[in-house]
Amino acid sequence: MSAHTRARVTLKLATSLDGKIALANGASKWITGPDSRSEVHKMRAAHEAILTGVGTIIADDPLFTARLDPMPERQPDLIVLDRSCRMPMGAKVFSVTERQVVMRSNRNIADALAGYERVMIEAGAQIAAAAIKANVVDRIEWFRAPIILGSDGLDVIAELGLETLEKAPIFQRTGIIERGADIQESYERIR
User: Fold this and answer.
1) Which residues pair with 92 in a beta bridge?
2) Distances (CA, A) of 114 to 78, 136, 149
3) Domain 8-189 adopts which CATH fold?
């Protein structure tokens, strides 16, 4: 990859209809159904790396692998943002030998993407917001389950600090697909 280009970034979101990623107590497994989860495995396989935060690792202990049939020869690298050194060394992500786990102590999203051409972000609200504010999100793949969690649920994107609507990032929907009971919406950033 050229030193002057940055990774093309896909932000993957999985929420309830009202944009929540978990209940107030953090319970989130599984909001979306098996058809959506199967598509996410295909998306992971199409990216060189997955970016997440240590909070997601601690809360869910995910593998972040592309589990397909047949299995890919190499799994996407995993970039973990962890500025407080809270990464549990017994986390499942270390059990995958076909990939590299890259730890980043900084919170500058653009720097964490260096060296990759295609990265997918699968993280909580804080990292999703940081990526949007850093203007690195090119595409959003949003999976919505037909459930409502209410205002006490955890939001999909944290505060952006917007003062006017004119400063809001704008994405254009480029596709919508039914995934079982869920809906997958695809968006490309236009501003």
Assistant:
1) none
2) 13, 12, 36
3) Dihydrofolate Reductase, subunit A (3.40.430)
Mean per-residue pLDDT, 157-165: 95
Render pLDDT for 171-182 as a digit per residue (tens, 0 to 9). 999 999 999 999
CA dist 115 and 153 (Å) reads 36
**What are the tokens at 46?**
């199409």
pLDDT tens, residue by residue, 114-137: 889 999 999 999 999 999 999 999
Which own/partner pairs from 69-77 qualify as long-range (CB within 8 Å, at least 24 positions apart)?
A: 72/45, 72/98, 73/98, 74/98, 74/99, 75/44, 75/99, 76/44, 76/45, 76/47, 76/48, 76/49, 76/50, 76/120, 77/48, 77/49, 77/50, 77/101, 77/102, 77/116
CB contact at 8 A, 121 and 9: yes
Task: Compute the distance between CA of residue 16 and CA of residue 146 in angstroms, rounded to an integer.
Answer: 6
What are 69's two structure tokens?
């049939």
What whole-number distance in Å separates Cα of residue 37 and Cα of residue 174? 20
pTM: 0.90
